[in-house]
Amino acid sequence: MRRPSVAAAGFTLIEVMISMFFLAFIVGEMAMVSMYARRSTAYAQRVTEANMLAEAVLEKSRNTAWTHLNTRFSALDTPPDPIVFDLTRDGIVESYNETCTPATPSATTVVTTCTCAAGPYTISRTVTPYLPSATTPFDQSTAADISVVVSWVDAKGGPHQIRNATVRSKY
Fold first, then answer.
1. Integer Cα distance of 146 and 149 in angstroms
2. Pairing of strands 159-169, 99-101
3. What are the Cα distances from residue 139, in Å, to 11, 30, 54, 70, 167?
4. What are the residue ranges of helices labelled H in the chain?
5. What is the pLDDT of residue 59?
6. What is the C-alpha to C-alpha distance for residues 134 and 141, in angstroms, rounded to an integer?
7. 159 pLDDT higher than 50
8. Is the pLDDT confidence value at 80 over 80?
9. Are 83 and 73 in contact (CB under 8 A)?
C-alpha cells in the first residue's frame, strides 16, 4: 500500500464542509438583502404615488376659481372637473370624485373637508379660510390654507400617510 504524498491535490472533507457553510451563509444574507430591497422599493413607490396624487390635488386647488375652491372636484360640476390620475400606469387616465362636507359654502361652517378614494389611497383635502371671525362666509375671506393628506395601508396592515399644504390667495 502506498501512502499519499504531502503534495497530493484535493480538499479534505472538513475544508469542503467549511466552504459549504460560508456559501450557505452568504446566499442566505443575499436573500435577506433582496427581500429588504423589494420591500423598500414597494414603499418608495407608494410614497411617490401618494406625493403625485397630493400634488395633483393641490395644483387643481391652485387653478380652481375662488368661489368653487371649497366645493368638490367632481364629474357633477359644471364644467366637469374630477381629479384625474393614471394610478394603474396603463396609459388610461382614471377620474376620481370627491365628497365634501359641506358641499356648498355656508355662513356657519367655514372649514371644508373633501375626501376621495383612489385605488389603495384615501385623499383628504381641507380648505381653511383666513377669517376675522368664525361667522364670516368663505367668499368674504381673502386667503385660505389648503392641506392634502394621502393615506394608505401597507401589505402588513400598517397605516401610512403623507401631507402636503399650500396657501391660496383670493386675488
1. 10
2. unpaired
3. 86, 60, 24, 9, 16
4. 13-62
5. 87
6. 11
7. yes
8. no
9. yes
CA angle 82/83/86 to nearest 5° reads 125
Neighbouring C-beta atoms of residue 107, cutoff 10 Å: 11
- Specify whether the CB–CB gap between 131 and 116 falls below 8 A: no
pLDDT digits (tens, 9 = 90+) for 81-90: 777 777 777 8
Strands 112-118 and 143-153 come out as: unpaired
Amino acid residing at 153: V
How far is the C-alpha of 150 from the C-alpha of 137, rounded, in Å?
27
99-124 confidence digits (pLDDT tens): 777 644 555 557 888 888 888 899 99
Listing DSSP states for 92-110 in one string gives --EEE--EEESSS--SS--
